[in-house]
Task: structure prediction
Amino acid sequence: MADKPTELPEDRTGKRPRDLPPANADQPKSNLPGARSLKPHWTERLATFDRRWVFLAMAIAIVVPFFAPLNLPVKASPRVRALYYSVESLHEGDVVFLSMDFDPASTPELAPFFRAVALHLKRKGVKMVLASTWYAAPPLVERYIREMVDRPLIGPDDTDYKGPPDRAYKQNVDYVWLGFREGKEAVIAAMGNDLRATFDHRAADGTPLADIPMMEGIHQLKDFDLIITISAGFPGTKEYVQQVQSRYDLPIVAACTAVSTTDLTPYYDAGQLLGLVGGMGAVAEYESLIGKPGLGTQGADVLNFGHLVVILAIVFGNFIYFAGRRQRRKRGQ
Amino acid sequence: MDLATIDLFGHWVGIFLTFCILSFLYKDNPFYKLAEHLFIGVSVGYIVTQQYYNVLEPKVVQAIASADHWYFNLALVPLVLVALLFVRSVSKRYAWIGRYPLAFVVALYAGIQINAVAQADLGQQMKRAMSDVVVDRTNVNTASAKVIQNMPGMSPDVAQKIVAHRDQQPFSSLDDLAGLDTLTADQRATLDEGRGHVTGLDARLAVTDGQIDWFGTLSRIFMVLGLIASLVYFYFSIAHKGAIGGVSRFGVWVLMIGFGASFGFTVQGRIALAIGRSMDILGLDKAPAVAEQIHGPLAALVVVAIIVFGLAVWELRSRRAR
Result:
């Protein structure tokens, strides 16, 4: 096989950097006396293989399980179970505050949770007050309200669902959408002090909060029976814990993206969060508890395949690295 | 349910832009650039509109317009602070004035944050970290229902039933819990699932005081040692040799376990994004009636064909130009 110099990676413009010398410029030519063979070892070839094969493997691992699901059993972890019981312990007519702090990038992980918790709250007859501290959230939240709150989530086709049915909620009767407020953690601190003033005493549709019967007696965050934060980052659950939970001793449960889970787990361990659902896998656990498998369950099944690809890639990468290191030591490099 | 034309078009545009972004796997190309620039443009336009209608219009414009004396209004203060930020672009000599609004913002958020972080993170977390190293098992005959309900396999209802029973007759063995005649079949099954001698119910619950939760105790010891070792790793005033070197190496292992957990969750999050887009394209996250109108898989095939054709044309033209 002819000696082939190692290709330099292309830059973002698709051009090969021209000013750089060839990768093997400093190595002796093979026809000179004492020159080593330039034929790359198999570990070197594999170490520089096109990473797009990994993307292809991942794409296959994600798409195939949609058509051939494994339906692996889901067992709820204690922190998901704790969140479930926090919602389960609410009574008809109780009012919860939902902080919808996410953007389109986090919807695959958080939208399934909202769907599940909305069903859980609606079937118990719990009223909701929704607000957001993320500027990208309002169009999403308004769509979710139209699709999941204004309409019943359980239809006649849901024959596999064994739980109590839910019903269509009415705006400013069963739920209130306060909208978005800019100000990040300052807004969260302000809501803890005076929720109504923070939203200029009006709901997002302009209705004065004083005219909404379900808002009677609700002036601050501590007036809610439970606070549920659905958070993709800053500002979100962490800021709720820092700004209002410790100050007012509020009952807060949280759903977050997988990335945030390790940051928020210490708050759950210390009792500052009553329950925690982190990532798509945990949403599947929550769905199993409410008895309505949904997008989280479907996604978690696919997630297992994706994780398998990542694990294999890590094992493969480490194998190549250690085999290559052994070879380099043999060569005395 | 009939989908509005604008929504249908929106779904197709979404599918097209997804594959435009994925086309970067081939190389940087006009389709990728189109999607990238569109994303930035739409984001900036959206943010400006949101900020105007959420902040500037109600808090400044309306506040000043509705006041009796516009020149004697607190709403002017933020407006002046914003104006001061632009002094730098007018005069280099007076550019320092722009530091005042920045100092105001930094001071405001420092004031909001310091107390909150001290209370929630330092206070509460240290309180938890400084609790007893030896963890006792919870005594089912004396603990409150709220404590019992957090045990493996428990629920608020089961905890209430246990408390009601133990008030009549204390439990002499944990096996008696599953024998409670007030439990439903589901509750009994969940309770059985929660049993276990390492981290399960048997490890954390007891019928008398003074029983040690060995796994909990070992976890605490590991946490304390790990915390000290991690801090030693970042302590550079002493050479990391001998015993200090060993402790420091243990600290590295602890840190790597922490980073590994974070990395695992990050991978999960990224795969979840890919799953989300796949579900959207395949129409699995929509009602069947809506998915049928969108024809996601067909639209995806058409889009891929358009992009592949476009890339081929672009490559040919680029080669000719060279």
Q: What stands out?
A: Residues 1-20 of chain A have pLDDT under 50 and may be disordered. Residues 5 and 48 of chain A are 12 Å apart (CA to CA). The beta strands of chain A are 95-101, 127-132, 175-180, 226-231, 252-256, 275-278. The longest strand of chain A covers residues 95-101.
